[in-house]
Amino acid sequence: MIGAQNTPKLRNYQMSTKKSLILLSGGLDSATLAFWLAKQGYTIECLYFDYEQGQTNPERECAISIAKRLGAKFNIVETPRPRDSLKNCLPLLNGEAALLTDIVSLCTTAVTFASASRADAIYLGVNANDRQVHPLLQARFFRGIEKIAGLSLGNNLRLLTPFLNKDKASIMRIGLKLGVPFENTWSCSVSVKKHCGQCADCIARKLAFKEVGFADPTGYENKNLLVTSDVTI
Question: What CA–CA distances, in Å, run from 185 to 72, 91, 129, 181?
Fold first, then answer.
């Protein structure tokens, strides 16, 4: 473990100064963010959204493991995925519309929780890769959620995304300096037993390890899938 004086810094980024709520998914981005906040001395509390995945969900177990390692309180919100609630009336809902439904629900729920727990900021591990795939995830979107929180709750709660302009490899480099146990993180969006090794999230994970030059500790079902930044073979 490294001292706070050696903690990687993000230039020109305004931090909160009090208690912070982090949306901890169990992935390597939010795990790195949790370690980054903790090593700088912030009091953090974790919130995990379980979309009816059950206790055998490896993503959930990874999130619990990260919170325990940091000594942070871990809270679980068990709820159907918001987009699924619209299937009966909007069966073709997908893409950015589906994401909007999910992310607004997630953020407003987190705002309510943070307000009740007296946190002054919510941290999300959204990164540059996410923003590239989903243009919705811009800084101004999160400023909009802050305005909604201010109007409804009368507070100055912040939604902060320190990694918004960093790609996954850059985040991984920060995590390596902080000693993040990447073997205890989860990325796969297909399998519930082992990383499949071929979904978009697994490929992004492989690419990040390859770019950083760090041995990937992940066990994949498809170990022989070759990955480059341009194509999977």
Answer: 16, 32, 18, 7
